Predict the structure.
Amino acid sequence: MSTDRIPRGIFLMLAFCVLAPLLDVSAKLAAEGGIPVGQITTARFLVQGLLMLPVVLWMGLTLRLPRRALGFVTLRAVFLILSTFSFVSGIAVMPVADALAIAFVEPFIILILGSLIFGDHVGPRRIAASVVGFCGALLVIQPSLAVFGWVALWPLGTAFFFAFYMLVTRAISAYMHPVSMQFHTSWTGLLLCLPVMLLAQGSGVQALDPVLPSGVLWLWLFGVGFWAAISHICMTYALKYAPSATLAPLHYSEIVVAVALGYAVFGDFPNPLTWAGIAVIVASGLYIIHRERLAARAPALRAASTP
């Protein structure tokens, strides 16, 4: 990977961290406007799929979904649906920054699941850092649980579902282009969501029974899919230009943007206990990234020292 492309990757990763919270803000505005969580989730896949179509055609990628990837793409879409539904359910009633901080325990979950599923070596220091990270999440959850009730646990569901989503992505990334993967995941997710919306129509189930949007609510629904597509394209190309070890620490700047947007749009500002939890989660995550770098560098150092 050429070093002169790394600044471009860093810029795109920072762009992702600025744009991704706009997805959350749009979803929260739509939910506060009375749009059901299931409908917001469906809108994400519809708009994202439509926006990804010209990108796929412009890049000359095939619209055909490889047969061997069908099961994995379907599973990936299911986990992304559940992750999106969980997160929107959380931010519908709680601050975006609080929900995002809780969801940031996802790297710790991936670390443990990677060890259990793929046999990745995970040392005691990284396990300890993961435990500390979960404790940080509890610091955020505790006051939210007292104020908002059990809905404060929805972002924790997001972390688990997104961790499984990332593991499925890892399983098929070797033979499927990331843009094609995103495109097919969007349309597969839409095909899975639409029947649920049709069956729920008139059911009275608050989270699923669709309503006809009006006025600015159309813009918020479009924004959910638009910011999802744009931000994830930025991340996709960031990983193309720069190593993941370089980009991973930058991901935590997304919390800073979420706090700023939450305060500017909704007047939400984290309390001291939430700030303490955010600090613990970020510190634990950065330590794990540091240990991952050392683990990745170790084989090369051993090879260099071998006579």
In short: Residues 45 and 186 are 5 Å apart (CA to CA). The radius of gyration is 20 Å.
